[in-house]
Amino acid sequence: MEILRVEMAGRLIEERTRLGYSQVTFANQLDMTREGLRLYETGQRGIGGEFLAKAAMLGLDVQYVLTGVESPNRAEIPQKLQDKALNIQTPIITVSPEGTANVVHVAQTGATVNFYNNQKHVVNTKAEVKPGIEHITEAQAAKLTELVENVVNLEGRVRKKPASRQSVWGKLNRHCGVTRYRLIPLELYEKAEKFLRQWIGRLNSQPMASISDNNTWRKNRYAYIKLKTNGELEDWRQKYLWKNFQVDSLTALSDDDLDKVYRAVTTKVRRK
């Protein structure tokens, strides 16, 4: 359920960005605080029906936010909202004795009164997502979302000024040359996953990582070491453990020694 909420939060940010709203402007349009919107966009609060109803009036694709499937008529929504706005827009009145100047003043007898409606037309276009054909699959998108959550959680634990969820997504998108992660080309998935895993690796190497959540830190170290040394390097790993620490299991290592093994494996794999 928490993963679903996080995925909905990510799609909410996508929709707000698609519509051209900043977080502050969007919150103002919805008569709510920026902090309230932030809680929705970080997955810390469930998105309610009243919020979605108001957001739909601004052009938000509610179906996409809830399910990840774009609404068939999403392209028509902005135009319909613009047409509705045109019918209620208050006209601007300008008065000119000659009928040509743009200076507004009190109309005199015989003056021409011109009515102008300066409604601005905004047309939003969005690239079509083709999962598994041109773009990453649903499963790959879910994996990237999970990795982003890991990055955000680690950032919060080990850094004084942690990167926000929106910042992490933004850096991933820029790394892959796209405007949103669902548009990452299928052939660039490994590049995207590697980018996030390297980020996680850097954070796990911070001194605070083993202190703030030692259990998770050790599990991550175990998983990495075993993943990288399974197969032909498994024998090397066991000999290394016994030669340097006189143990035959990773769980018997202290935090410092476990980190030494992790770094030794990283070096070994890099030179392989």
UniProtKB/TrEMBL annotation:
It comes from the Bacteria. Residues 12-65 form the HTH cro/C1-type domain. SMART domains: HTH_XRE (SM00530). InterPro entries: Cro/C1-type_HTH, Lambda_DNA-bd_dom_sf. GO terms for molecular function: DNA binding. SUPFAM superfamilies: lambda repressor-like DNA-binding domains. This is Transcriptional regulator.
